[in-house]
Structures are given as C-alpha cells and as structure tokens.
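Worked example 2:
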Amino acid sequence: MPLTLHEAFVPSAHQIVGGVRALIDTAEDFAVENGMEDAELLDAALASDMWSLPWHVRACWVHTKLALDLVPTGEFSPDFTEIPDNWDAMRAMADEALAALDAADANALETLAESEVHFVLGGTRRMSFTVSNFLLSFSQPNFYFHATTFYDILRMKNVPLGKRAFLHTPRILRS
C-alpha cells in the first residue's frame, strides 16, 4: 500500500522535532548542572561558518510549520527573522512546530500533493517543485540536517546524549 504525503512527512517530522524539543530541556539542564553560562551552548556552532544552536531550532520550524503553512500558497520563502535567543524561546518554537504537525490535515495535504510550489529567496524563484517533492526532497532533508546539527553541537559540548535522544519516540508496535 503506498504512503500518503501526510504519512511520509508528518509523523517522522513530528518524531524528530519532538526529539529536538526534548534535547532543548536536556541541554538547559546540563548547563545548569555544570555551572555553564547559557551562551556557551547557545553560541556554539560546529564550525565558524555554520549557524549556532538556536538557528537550527528555527530551521526545524521553517521546514515543518512554515513549510506546511506556505505550500498551499504556492510559494515558500524561508523566514529567519526571529531566531530564538534563549531556552524558552527555543522550546516555544519547537512546540509551535509540533502543534502545526499535529494539526496537519491529511486530506488537505493529499489534495495539494501534485500542486506547484516555488522556492523563493530574495524575491526570486530559485526552484519549482510539486508540493510532494518539495516536502520530501527539500524540507524533510533540511529539517533532518538541522535537527542532526543541533544534536551534534550538544555532543560537541559534551552533553551526554545517545542516539536514542535523537530518535526520541519511534512508532513501535504496542502489545
């Protein structure tokens, strides 16, 4: 049986954004327990030319909540105007993304699957997709990249995490 667009995008996005949400709490607790200034984690990046920790939360939000909001309009332009600057702001952004994923209507998404959506940057259309290809070949890889980078920054700063922290809550059979 083929997957719907909703099944292919929403549950996995929810799982990983849920993991990012939990990692935010873990990171803050680690900072407090180790007497670290918040900035030591918030300003951390994997390389000098890469984004710091809060940017990756925003990117996860952009490629889930904002993507779902904008695909019906036919144009997607990333919005990085509000970068969270503290733990609570990152939590709120992750919670907003989770709420949008919870509210995503499977039928509405399936209706849009073959519609066009254009990636717009700086007022210029850079790429054109079907909604299905946009979500699965552009937004999904992007949010995985940014969620992974968020996790990797925390590992680099010695926050004790394992793979399970990233995977969060897999959708397993329940007996």
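The longest strand covers residues 124-130. The chain is about 60% helix and 10% strand.
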